[in-house]
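Much of our argument rests on the idea that a fold can be written as discrete symbols. Part of our work consisted of pairing the sequence of a single chain with a tokenised description of its backbone. We regard such an encoding as a compact summary of how the chain folds. The amino acid sequence and the backbone structure tokens for this protein are reproduced below.
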Amino acid sequence: MIDAPLKALILVCTLSPSPKRSSSELLASQVAAELSMHAVQSETLRIVDFDVKPGVEKDMGEGDAWPGIRDKIMASDILVLATPIWVGHPSSLAQRVLERLDAELSETDREGRPILFDKVAMVAVVGNEDGAHHVIADLSQGLGEVGFSIAAQGSTYWVGEAMHTTDYQDIEQTPEVTTKATRTSARNTAHLAALLRNSPFPAG
């Protein structure tokens, strides 16, 4: 049985600093609301608000904000990566998160297992251009490579009409298909995180 609430860290990779409105943060808040329905406590950080240095080490030296964010990742059961689409790709900040997570490939726990093996990741994407499936595939592959598990249908997204300028935060009502995807991905992510909490992957 789970003896403590599951915890999720949601990293919002918008290029817009706080307090500017953000479609990525809006979708992230909806993910957090759905996760709360499964007794998951969420914390949200907007990466652009922190000085996350470029690099592939756990700590890139003086002024690097990543070590503090990394501590929060390690204390969480779930990592949600929320990003806009820019020119058909994840934002540069989402890519930076993956690059910093690369350092975890060499980290193991007391049983010799990769340190991220019992954590679950989820991807949330917004944009007013095509590319959501490509972005989800890129991020999910990277997250899986460093050790996270991805639940069945463990992503959600919204994209506006191609070659138009409508943002997710500007639409009057969230489309039912996006609401359903968010609900399903949050439910399945929380379920998988609970399973791994109770039955971790075996040591090699």
DSSP finds five helices and six strands in the chain. Helices lie at 23-36, 66-74, 92-101, 132-146, 176-198. The chain has a mean pLDDT of 95. The domain at 6-198 is CATH 3.40.50.360 (Rossmann fold).
